[in-house]
Amino acid sequence: MANANIELLKKLRNETSASIADCRAALEETDNDYAKAQEWLKKRGLEKAEKKSDRETQQGLVEAYIHNGGKVGALIVLQCETDFVARTEEFKGLAREIGMQVAAMNPESVEALLKQEYIRDASLTIESLIKSVIGKLGENITLREFKRFEI
């Protein structure tokens, strides 16, 4: 197992927001192969998300997304375990992305939304997007409800 290349470690940390320990482990496990390290981190994040899935989510925020022109909007209720995480930019960004998804794709239910391809990256579903943020923030995150409005 090779020591983690410091430049790759910095780059991986900046791009993924994963912990330094996880970035180091990913690079060491993959012999400093950057692409493989990214995949390693993705898999690790999904594993972390699965372990946290039974935790209660009592905190969170209501996010409003209004699409350009003001003709379409969405309100979503995204929940997490603590108010500390609810105030992070990562959590707020996830809420905004989900609001944009609702406005653009008009899903019928939360379950349908979770299975949709993410509009910014077709290789992800909304559910996998949420799980990736769970892996980064270390808390369970649930989408409780949403409402789409259109004129």
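(the above was protein one; protein two follows)
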Amino acid sequence: MTTVTLSPTRALRRPRRLDWRALFGLFLLLVATGGSITFWSASSDTRALLVATRDLPAGAELREGDLAVARVRVDDAIYQASVPAAELASFLGQQLGEPLHAQQLLARAQLSDRPRIGPGQLALTIAISPETAVGGRVRSGDAVQVLLTINKGKPEARTTIVLPRATVYDVGYDQRVTVVSTEMADRSATQGPVKWLTLVGTQEQALQLAQAKGQGDLDVALLPAEQGSDGREGGSQPRP
């Protein structure tokens, strides 16, 4: 038989108990930390993009009050197609190629790639072909020269300059329809060769071009970009 002798210290020691107030405080600390981490993760996933503040029609020029910054959570594909808030200054003054609705993200594809038609200017379309327009290698914003040839192929043929310099507003192509399946009669349109050009010029230039269309054959020559006062290259019209 074993006898245990209790010392005064052992006799007075209280049994250990859990401090519920400390546990509750620790629980609140964990909850607050987890909430902060969740909020930080959600905030870091959002991206600042430009949205429209009101409905805008096609052709409208973007002003500062037309756009606002919104932080949204989007995937990489949508982010690449949209305009980041950091690029706001570079997009002000550009024209819309299609309508933009209020609270809609501004997409790069909605912006027009055509040069602006300034006060006193007109846009006029002429028929062309790859053979008469540098193989069809013409795009919106290019500077071109329009030539008129009368009596082409004859000894008395002569060529004059109708427009020394004009800006291409738009390019049209022949749309060809291809039958994919004869059973289902599925059709798909493919872009054919260049068919017409719309040029921007003054009213006097538009009259000269309209008269020249019925006098002979028109050819379009591609011109180099103009040199600005600072020596840099620049088109004849501001390009978006």
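Reviewer note on protein two: The first helix runs from residue 8 to 12.
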